Amino acid sequence: MRRLRPAALVVAGVIPIDLMAQERKMAYDLREVLGRSEAKVVARDHSIRTWHERWRTDTRGRWTARLIGNPSVWAGREHGEVDYYLTQFLMGHGCFTSYLYRMGKVGDLSCVFGDSDLDDAHHTFFLCDRWVPERESLEQEIGRITPENIVEIMLSQRDYWDQVATFAKIQLFGGAICDQVLELQTFKDS
Ligand SMILES: [Zn+2]
Q1: pLDDT by residue (tens digit) across 65-105?
Q2: If you measure from the C-alpha of residue 70 to the centroid of ligand 1, how many angstroms do you get, rounded to a whole number?
Q3: What is the 162 CA–ligand 1 centroid distance (Å)?
Q4: Is the pLDDT of residue 1 over 50?
């Protein structure tokens, strides 16, 4: 079975399968001493803590880790669908030239809108000049956004979640922006 990358599991809110197995075994082993329900609680707590520690010290998925510092709070949220656009934002995949560059689709890392030598999810969402009006109106509604606080804001109110999701969608615009990026890049290259 192909192992899912840690960031994909965190975004999906799924505890890694080996930790699940460990948790079940631990709950089983402890049930004589603690009773069934207490054993479950202790085992769950242990696997959450192991998951957090693993996520904190992993070298992969660091953009996602900057956004989602606490995987279990994220996983246990009471609202918020992670759609296609939010997935791209949270994973740092998508029509960011840094990603397209890794995929061999573009020749350099700079933003097609000409304001940065590096275009990635951070640039697009939080910095790019192209999205200043949209970002400003979002911030008027939900407050100043940074990679470190955006998830907390999204989790605080369903409406805030939806507004961030809409912002993500505008920027990624159903893939159309991707064509635009590639078109502009071709234009720049020729
Ligand atoms: Zn830009």
Answers
A1: 999 999 999 999 999 999 988 998 999 887 787 888 887 87
A2: 29
A3: 23
A4: no
Report CA(120)–ligand 1 centroid distance (Å). 9
Contact 155, 73 (CB under 8 A): yes
User: pTM for this one?
Assistant: 0.85
pLDDT, tens digit, for every residue of 11-27? 999 999 999 999 999 99
Instruction: Give residue 7 CA to ligand 1 midpoint distance, Å.
Output: 25
Compute the average pLDDT of residues 45-65: 95
**What is the Cα 50 distance to its own chain's centre?**
20
